[in-house]
Amino acid sequence: MTAGDPTTLHHDAPPVLTARGVRVRLGGHEILHGVDLDAHPGEAVAIMGGNGSGKSTLVRALVGALPMAAGDVTIFDAPRTRASARRIGYVPQRASAGGGVSATAREVVTAGLLGVGSLRPPRDAKARALAALDDLGVADLADRDVSRLSGGQQQRVLIARALVRDPDLLILDEPMAGVDVPSQEALAAALTARRDAGKAIILVLHELGALAPLVHHAVVLEQGCVTHIGEPLAPSASTPYPATTMTTPTPMCPSRPRRPSPGRFASDRPDD
Ligand SMILES: Nc1ncnc2c1ncn2[C@@H]1O[C@H](COP(=O)(O)OP(=O)(O)OP(=O)(O)O)[C@@H](O)[C@H]1O
């Protein structure tokens, strides 16, 4: 497996994002037990792990969509603020592009430019939105109502909305879900161009697939603990994710707490 080209890394520059000791509680249970993560300019980091291991919870905590019970997240060496949060482009898992309102794909992508320095979209918003859609191979859908697009098409429109503002950090939760192979290749090319331009990218992935050449290193979660940081390793049927390959200092969950099954939860609201 080829890891991302290390020559694109800018480790001498301050990290775009640093997370230390991130703990999150949901529904009365601790879901993340103290997770560390760094993303540097020009670096692509994959967060991997089995279903329910805490990947989406982690990225939601990183972007401030979930409160942390403990830990620190800094963006460009400073605590996250509204202004610094604007430097992040985030696409959650299984989001729907329309948000219940009627809008064309181009309007959805243009909305990604709002709030960047001005309440109005910039003059070249239309051209930038079309270019972002083109990057994802969906320029032909620009004037279509997003609510009538397929799941994979909506996913690509949402990624275009995140890309259009050229964020310093892109966080994509399962970007390949429901996306066909030719479109995965278009997405991989678009992300590689961003990475090579010095942007940091954090991806939640079940498998590397077309993104394998992009990714520098993987952080593997198991039951809310980091069990591997380093070269992405291919999961096998017997060991779905490597659990004993920690290549950085200390395991973050030495005595890994086993949560009782949370069962069904009534709401998506954290218990803060
Ligand atoms: N609102 C909630 N209340 C209680 N528990 C929750 C809530 N949201 C998620 N969880 C639990 O947190 C754990 C981690 O969920 P999370 O969605 O982060 O996993 P994941 O690694 O992204 O999984 P997948 O690969 O299936 O998307 C799971 O056990 C899940 O049941």
Automatic annotation (TrEMBL):
It comes from Demequina litorisediminis. SUPFAM superfamilies: P-loop containing nucleoside triphosphate hydrolases. This is ABC transporter. Keywords: ATP-binding, Nucleotide-binding, Transport. Residues 234-272 are annotated as: Disordered. Residues 234-255 have a biased composition (Low complexity). The keyword Nucleotide-binding applies. PANTHER family: METAL TRANSPORT SYSTEM ATP-BINDING PROTEIN TM_0124-RELATED. It holds the Pfam family ABC_tran. Residues 17-248 form the ABC transporter domain. The keyword Metal-binding does not apply.
